[in-house]
Design goal:
The protein has 13 helices and twelve strands. The chain is α/β, with parallel strands linked by helices. The chain has a domain of 123 residues. Helix 2 packs parallel to helix 3, helix 5 runs parallel beside helix 6 and helix 6 crosses helix 7.
């Protein structure tokens, strides 16, 4: 969920419908504070697992991130997980790049120790010093039951961090068998280099997308599908533009449909505030001048759309390919509709 402090009923509904995890997005200049949202959700639910999806390393020290999750673990013991990334929107909407990979690895190593209630050598304000929570036994935090740590990564180096330090890998790749096979090849390669054996039954893999169940006779190109998929689909252009811009605007263009026109649109924006403009409406709605980029081709490249039978079949195939979880991020205006349709029409058709 895009963290929204006055919409905790959405978390309650997700639990009632049988969803397993509530991933609360962290982007301080877009949404409500994720930890406040998680705390309210923890108090209103009993079964669903609750965690960051994903916490941003560059905006909080590892000690703060660990303390936040351990605090929620007091409210929902054994239901809390921590997923962490180097910072997509949270850093970029402030005009900064995500945390460099070497710094990110140091952060994750610190975080794993701190989430376990152990002492870690934490780098902070130009120094590295031993840090631990001083009052874990007085009820302020709970490091037990153990809090799983999942790492957000796309490229081989980031995936290597998940293998070396995490309990799983969070991605946002096109949910296809080919994409999962490619991801597992990278996981296995990183594990081989590190001399680690990865247990596919316990190492969580999750990918972020959205899903729409077609109505009888409906096609991917319908206005309803565009409305339900548009916010997520166009966010892929936001991300690709950031990657392209930060790489120095290379000659190689993104293969996403509408790319050249999208670049031309953003190049007309005042560059002093471009970092704000890129992510307007991010995953929540589509700004008017970007509606033309929500094409059938872009939807099919980024989202899961089909009949209930088709979607169930695709999910079973992804399960066979080693995908543990699909994270859905629907637009604000239709989030309950998507949550209900998937739970009521697709989930009952899954093998398990």
């Amino acid at each position: 969920m895009a963290a929204k402090i006055d919409d905790i009923e959405y978390a309650v509904l997700a639990e009632e419908l049988g969803y397993s995890h509530l991933w609360v997005a962290d982007s301080q200049m877009l949404w409500s504070d994720c930890y406040a949202t998680m705390a309210l959700a923890a108090a209103r639910t009993k079964r669903i697992r609750i965690g960051t999806g994903v916490a941003v390393a560059g905006t909080r020290t590892s000690a703060v991130t660990a303390a936040g999750h351990a605090t929620i673990n007091r409210l929902a013991p054994g239901r809390v997980f921590c997923a962490v990334g180097s910072g997509n929107t949270a850093m970029r909407v402030m005009g900064a790049r995500p945390m460099p990979i070497a710094e990110f690895e140091r952060y994750i190593a610190e975080l794993r120790l701190l989430l376990d209630g152990e002492e870690a050598d934490v780098t902070f304000r130009n120094g590295t010093r031993p840090v631990r929570h001083l009052m874990p036994d007085l009820g302020f935090v709970a490091f037990r039951p153990r809090i799983p740590l999942y790492v957000s990564g796309f490229g081989p180096r980031a995936i290597g961090l998940a293998v070396r330090h995490g309990d799983g890998l969070v991605m946002s790749i096109h949910p296809s068998v080919e994409g999962m096979e490619r991801a597992w090849r990278r996981v296995d390669s990183a594990a081989g280099e590190a001399g680690i054996a990865v247990d596919r039954s316990s190492f969580l893999t999750c990918t972020l997308t959205t899903m729409v169940v077609l109505e009888p006779g409906e096609t991917v190109g319908s206005d309803r599908v565009r409305d339900l998929c548009g916010a997520f689909a166009v966010s892929s252009l936001h991300y690709q533009y950031e990657q392209w811009k930060e790489a120095g605007r290379p000659e190689r263009r993104s293969p996403l449909p509408g790319w050249d026109d999208y670049v031309a649109l953003l190049e007309r924006v005042d560059h002093a505030v471009l970092h704000q403009r890129i992510h307007e409406g991010h995953c929540c709605w589509v700004v008017e001048e970007e509606e033309r980029f929500v094409t059938e081709e872009l939807i099919e490249a980024t989202c899961m759309v089909g009949t209930a039978d088709d979607l169930a079949r695709r999910l079973d195939e992804l399960d066979d390919a080693g995908l543990g979880q699909v994270m859905l991020l629907p637009p604000l205006s239709a989030k309950e509709e998507i949550l209900r349709s998937v739970a009521e029409q697709v989930m009952p058709k899954l093998r398990r």
